[in-house]
Give the backbone structure.
Amino acid sequence: MFTERLLPGVGGWFGVVIFALVLGVALSVVNLLTAAVGAVVALVVGVALAWWTSPVVAVRDGELVAGSAHIPLELLGEVTVLDRDGVHQAMGTQWDPRAFACLRTWAGGGVRVEIVDPSDPTPYWIVSSRRAHDLAAALTHQG
């Protein structure tokens, strides 16, 4: 079993904090209490939105789950681990527009999984993961 939530990287969290601070400074012309409340509310909402919009990648219940998409493991073929450069190449000149992608650039790596279902026009999935080797192991041991 494998589960990972693709939360933002350090830069994303830094952006949430900076936005909250800037909002607090902007609201300080009203009064300090309004500024503090506004900054805290912005921070809480920013963290909640980052969590809520981050897809979950999982291998569970006989399926590969990537965000809202899922596919049975028996329909998966070869699994290839991709580092950051491998993801860039796969999404560049090697990209097939029929492929499915669940990507988050801050994750760094991912996997490419061939689809062996003859009735599915999708040739492969590319799924981001900070733990691409663990995801590949979960797919090959359960698939």
Remarks:
- Residues 2-52 form one domain.
- The beta strands are 2-5, 56-60, 63-66, 69-72, 76-82, 100-102, 109-115, 124-129.
- The mean pLDDT is 94.
